[in-house]
Design brief:
This protein is α+β, with helices and mostly antiparallel strands and 281 residues long.
Length: 281
């Protein structure tokens, strides 16, 4: 019986050793001193093309006029609607006649200066024709440009103008008067601003200096101010608020210049309709 028990034990021991050996072969152990490291896969996002402005400028002197032209054009393939809206506006300020590639500033500049030379008055000496269009303000929501001009063709004095335009980055829409829903509030701020801009003391004095065909047939002060038209040019947005500018002779004599009114953003917001309030978000 002892011999049988010893033999049975020996058989089980051999079987266990063989089984362990096979398991060791089936599951190889990690090498000594090895370190397991999990690596995250890094996927680089494609770089978004920046929205930029390129400046084009040239001075030209003829027998009759000196031309000084400087403007910017938007350059972007990732936001073509915005770039096209801005460049169309620049083209319009220069005359609106150029029909070539709106991204080709050199061609646009050459076209307008050649056109102005062909059309210049031959009896003028020391004339001036100056254009300056630049970006003046930008936020995450919109971009604002301004266009300043000065022209002198002889006589007692020259003429100047200042207009601007604000464009929403998401779709290129231009800010305009249609976004003002409460004209009564706007007119209140407009009259207050004109009193300051024209350096008068009250509404009566303001009414006295205004010269505009829309109100010239009326004597009552309140009626004249109520019928005073808004500036022909659309307003635009700056860091300080909404800018309204009347051009020379639009509502006052030359000596009054270009009366402008700035309405702070905090006062502008209640005047806006739904489209205007969405624009400022």
């Amino acid at each position: 019986m002892k011999f049988y028990s010893f033999t049975l034990f020996t058989a089980f021991a051999v079987f266990a050793l063989v089984a362990c050996g096979k398991k060791a072969q089936a599951e190889p152990q990690p090498q000594k001193d090895s370190v397991a490291v999990a690596h995250d896969t890094v996927v680089e996002k494609p770089k978004e093309e920046s929205f930029t402005f390129e400046t084009f400028s040239k001075k030209l002197k003829t027998k009759h006029f000196a031309y000084d032209t400087k403007f910017v054009l938007a350059q972007s393939n990732s936001n073509p609607n915005l770039a096209n809206a801005i460049n169309e506006w620049v083209n319009e300020q220069l005359g609106g006649k150029y029909q070539g590639n709106l991204n080709d500033g050199d061609a646009m500049l050459s076209y307008y200066q050649k056109r102005w030379v062909r059309e210049e008055e031959k009896d003028v000496t020391n004339g001036e024709n100056n254009f300056a269009i630049s970006k003046v303000y930008e936020t995450e929501q919109f971009i604002t440009l301004e266009a300043e001009t000065y022209w002198f063709g002889g006589g007692a004095h020259g003429g100047s103008s200042l207009v601007g335009a604000t464009f929403r980055k998401s779709d290129g829409r231009k800010f305009d008067k249609s976004m003002i829903g409460n004209e009564k509030m706007l007119r209140h701020q407009l009259i207050r601003g004109l009193i300051k801009a024209l350096e008068v003391s009250n509404k009566e004095e303001l009414s006295g200096v205004l010269q505009c065909s829309a109100i010239d047939g009326y004597d009552d002060v309140d009626t004249r101010l109520a019928l005073l038209p808004l500036p022909e040019a659309d307003p635009w947005l700056t860091k300080k608020g909404m800018q309204l500018v009347y051009q020379q002779y639009e509502i006052a004599p030359y000596a009054a210049g270009s009366p402008s009114v700035l309405i702070p953003l905090v006062k502008l917001h209640p005047m806006l309709n739904a489209s205007g309030k969405t624009y400022l978000k």
